[in-house]
Amino acid sequence: MSNPYLLGADLSYVNELEDCGGKFYKDLQPRDPFTLFSDEGSKIVRLRLWHSPDWTTYGTLADVKKSIRRAKGNEMAILLDFHYSDNWADPAHQIIPAAWSGITDTNVLGDSLYNYTYSVLEELYSENLSPEYVQVGNEINSEILMEKPTAENGPTNWERNAALLKRGLQAVKDFNEAKGLNIQRMLHVAQPDEAKEWFASAAKQNLSDFEWIGLSYYPNWSEFDLEQLSQTISFLKNTYQKEVMVVETGYPYTFRNFDGANNVLGEGSDLTGYPASKEGQMSFMIDLTSSVIKGGGRGVIYWEAAWISTPCKTQWGTGSHWENAAFFDAANGNEALPVFDFFSHNYQIIDN
Asked: Could you tell me which residues are beta bridge partners of residue 95?
C-alpha cells in the first residue's frame, strides 16, 4: 500500500545542471533525474520562480515550465514557489522585484502582486501546466517586498505585510474560481522556532484564508529537535486548522568539499545520532518524516536533492554548495545514495 504522505524534492536546479553536463546514476546507469525520483517514490516536486532575474536564465517562468512538464510527465504533483523577488528570498532578504521598485502605495503594490500571480497561473493553465500547490512567498519570516534587506528596515509592518500576502492568496483563489480548479495555497516560514509567533501575528491581521502552512527545518539553524518540531506542527495544525508540510530540509552525507563552491552544510551541521554519512543522512530523513507524521504533518520536501557538482557557477563560487547534502554520491560518480529510501519507507499511517 502506498503511503498517503506528500514526500518529494525541490528540483529547481536540474535543468541548469544538465546544461552544464551534470549526469545522474542509479546502479551505474545514467538516469533522467525526474524519472528516477518518481520511480523511487517521490510524489511532489517543488520549483522556485523568480520574477525577472538579470543574473541567470534559470528560475524564470520559461525554465519552470520545462521542469513542470518533466515532473508531470512522471506523474508528480507541483508545488510552485513564488519568491516575489529577482533573487533568493529568505528571512533576511525579501527584496522587491525591480519591476515594482519604488511603489510605495500598498494598494498599488498589492495590485501588482495580484496581477503577476494571476497571470503566471493563467499562462501555465493555457499550457496544461497548472500546479497543484502554490507558495505565496518563500521563507516570509520578515516583511515581503522590501527595498532593502530586513536588518536595515526594522520590525515588520504587519498591516502592510498582511495586506500584500492577502492579495497573493486572493489571486490564487480567484483563479481557482475562474477555472474550476483547487490549487492549494501555502504560507511558508523558515524554522519551527519562529512559526508560532509568526502565525500568531498573521492571525491578528485576519490573515487566514489559505490551506497549508509550510516550514523549513534545517537542524543546524534550529534550536528545536525532532520532537519539538513534531510538537510545533501539532500546535500549528490544531490551532489554525491548516495542513502542515516541511517544504525545505537537508542533511549532509559527508563533510568533504568536492569543488570550489563552499558547502552550506559544513563541519558541525550534523546531529548526535546522525553522523554525516550515507546511513546517517538516510536515518535522519526517515526519522524527520516520522516526526512530521507524528505531529499531524502531511509531507516532507527535501531541498535541492539533485544539486550535484558541475562546472556551473553560482553567485558565490563554481560548482555546488550542496553536493555533500544531495541524493547523489559525489565521490562515486553521482551514484544514487541510500537516502532515496526515505520516499518508500513504511511509515506508520496516522489519521490526524
From this structure: 146
Q: What is the pLDDT of residues 224-242, one digit of tens each?
A: 999 999 999 999 999 999 9
Beta-ladder partners of 294: none
Known active-site residue 123 = no
Q: Is 315 helix (H, G, I), strand (E, B) or coil?
A: coil
**Interaxial angle between packed helices 278-294 and 226-240, expressed in degrees from 0 to 180 and rounded to the nearest 10:** 30
Q: How far apart are CA 13 and CA 46, in angstroms?
A: 11
Residue 328, in any domain of the structure: yes
Instruction: Count the domains in the chain.
Output: 1
248: annotated active-site residue: yes
Residue where the block lists cell 501575528: 201
Task: List the one residue out of 134, 147, 126 whose CA is nearest residue 186.
Answer: 134
Q: What is the pTM of this model?
A: 0.98
- Which candidate in 16, 40, 139, 194 is catalytic? 139
User: CATH code at 118?
Assistant: 3.20.20.80
Q: Indicate the helix (H) or strand (E) that contains 305.
A: none
Assigned C-alpha cell, 325 = 547534502
DSSP H/E element including 134: strand 133-136
pLDDT in tens, 96-118: 999 999 999 999 999 999 999 99
Phi, psi of 89 (to 5 degrees): -105, 130
Contact 299, 242 (CB under 8 A): no
Instruction: Give residues with Cβ within 8 angstroms of 349, minimum separation 6.
Output: 3, 4
**Whole-angstrom distance, CA of residue 60 vs CA of residue 200:** 33
Residue 233 identity: I
Residue 166: domain span: 6-344
Q: Single out the catalytic residue among 40, 143, 194, 248.
A: 248
Query: In whole angstroms, how far apart are CA 113 and each of 59, 60, 95, 98?
Result: 18, 16, 13, 13
